[in-house]
Design goal:
It is built from 5 helices and 5 strands, in the order E-H-E-H-E-H-E-H-E-H. By secondary structure, the chain is an alpha/beta fold.
């Protein structure tokens, strides 16, 4: 059975790249470009994991993380943050359900697949 990953990324080319890599490795994907669209997609069906950019328009990635922690059914969804924001640490984001933090400035395509597999197996 294919696992579903919700990619929340406002940069079209980067979101498309994540989806292409994940689908190549057998994952089913959904795509949202902002937190509000992501919440609507999550309401339609819980993903197995979320890949999230912190720099989103509107409420932003931190707002989405906070929203996910307010509902019992979404608190356990593992989140992987892909960000180029240097001042953010995994320790700061862990209370929001973030299980992995990838630096989007230096990561390789296989890093995202490895991160998804890691959070789904733990």
């Amino acid at each position: 059975m294919s696992r579903t990953v919700l990619v929340v990324e406002s940069e079209p080319w980067l979101g498309d790249h994540y989806i292409q890599v994940l689908e190549k490795h057998g994952f089913t994907t959904k795509r949202a470009t902002n937190a509000y669209a992501a919440i609507d997609m999550i309401d339609d069906g819980l993903p197995d994991a979320i890949i999230l950019s912190l720099l989103l328009s509107g409420t932003g990635g931190l707002g989405l993380l906070h929203e996910l922690q307010t509902y019992i059914d979404t608190t356990e969804i593992p989140v992987i943050v892909c960000s180029g924001v240097a001042h953010v640490s995994l320790e700061e984001l862990a209370p929001y359900g973030v299980r992995q933090l990838l630096d989007s400035r230096s990561m390789k395509p296989d890093d995202i697949v490895a991160a998804v597999r890691s959070v789904l197996s733990s």
